[in-house]
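Q: Can I see a sequence and its folded structure?
A: Here is a first one.
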Amino acid sequence: MSLMTEGEAPGPVRFYLTCDDIGCPARAVFDLVIDEPPPPIEQDLFAHVLHSSTRAAPYLEKQGWTFRQGIGYWCPTCSTPRSLRPAPPKPARRSPVRRQRRDPKGPQKQ
């Protein structure tokens, strides 16, 4: 899963998010203060585990991240259809690697 948390509600919770699209290096780290404690783990394990991420979902949507069922979170760039994305920058030309010239007389003794 691409969304990890550090900290417990109620209080500040740090979120670590990575894009799940193949080959995308996008990452995000943010803090949210969650006022409500999670439900007791004995009553509802699923809601207890997902309490923080449920509170962060509206914030993530505002930032342009989308959740794809069965795949995970996609960053704003990967969420945009390819036809609407700006073209990637072209790589710069590198200067050719030049070898040092050989001394026609061969190695010199000093």
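Q: Show me another, different protein.
A: A second, unrelated one:
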Amino acid sequence: MFGNANSSRPWHAQAGDLLGDNYNVPGIVLCALGVVGLACTLTAAGYGFDGWTEVGALVTAALWIGGIGALLVEHRRAEVIERRIGRLGHAPGHMRPLRYRAEKSLASRRARELG
């Protein structure tokens, strides 16, 4: 799809990708503000302020839609970049997928203990 041999395999996000990219911050902040908006909306509804409840519901919905939209746009941007350079996700800063093995970690730990 993007001119490399690895493009036939599906790209997928790895654990920590959402927090590892600074461009995700606006989406995370908007979603967090949406949670605060929901709390304010429920409080207004509990005290019987119908006008503020309607405003709060609209603001909460707008914050969540904007936050989730920003996260989806950023996820797609990261996917396009990683497919373009031939990576399939994981290990930011590396040009290829890394495979982690317990044997390698144990061997390096033993070497440090002995050496």
